[in-house]
Design a protein that fits this description.
This protein is mainly beta and 214 residues long. The protein is built from one helix and 24 strands.
């Protein structure tokens, strides 16, 4: 593993070194066998401005892609990005994932036009989707021909937890320690320590008490 890396030879060294490694989350021990961490041989990385911290895990079939004018992707120390997740930046959008965050399988993170910032220790459950943009759809013109637009970037505070299948739209701030229930669609800010559910997501109570908002 000491010869592992993102180059062709480094990816080949990783494949040889991990031939008998356990799959999926069990491969996390590999992140400590090389200062760079572990990038699965099946991961597809097409990004000229990828900045990796120490002891990171990029799992099987993860895609990190830079579209036209895509900004940087910065991944902090001990971040785990698991199987089949797709990350894209384009048209000035950028992505920062702070240390200790976990992106579970099949998440989609598209930072186009505006930035996405994911805080320390954040947990995204499987199938979450973050989009820092949407699409023009004015009548009388092909939707495909209309420009991308945004209400602003997405920020997810430290230690927040997003349940399975949560969708976060542009211009949203999710506070520190907030919890968003499975299947929710977040269209507006969620305060620190709040628990929010639904489509659109609505705060139902705070973690610090048992009261329910009507």
């Amino acid at each position: 593993m000491r010869y592992a890396g993102l180059s062709s030879s480094g990816r080949f060294a990783t494949r040889l070194a991990t031939w008998f490694a356990l799959p999926h989350k069990a491969s996390k021990y590999l992140t400590y066998m090389n200062p760079l961490g572990y990038v699965a041989p099946t991961a597809s990385i097409y990004h000229s401005d990828l900045r990796l911290g120490a002891n990171i895990l990029i799992g099987d079939s993860v895609v990190i892609y830079q579209a036209e004018n895509g900004g940087p992707v910065e991944i902090g120390d001990q971040v785990h990005i698991l199987k089949d997740t797709i990350i894209e930046t384009g048209f000035g959008g950028s992505l920062t994932i702070a240390s200790g965050a976990t992106i579970n399988p099949r998440c989609q993170i598209n930072a186009y036009v505006a930035p996405i910032k994911i805080g320390c220790g954040v947990q995204l459950a499987p199938n979450c989707a973050l989009y820092s943009y949407d699409h023009g759809f004015a009548s009388g013109e092909s939707i495909r021909a209309q420009p991308l637009r945004t209400r602003g970037g997405i920020t997810i505070g430290d230690d927040a937890w997003l349940g399975v299948g949560v969708i976060v739209l542009s211009g949203v701030h999710i506070g520190k320690g907030a919890v968003v229930g499975a299947g929710s669609v977040v269209t507006q800010d969620i305060p620190d320590e709040a628990i929010a559910v639904g489509n659109p997501a609505r705060v139902v109570r705070m973690r610090s008490n048992k009261g329910v908002f009507k």
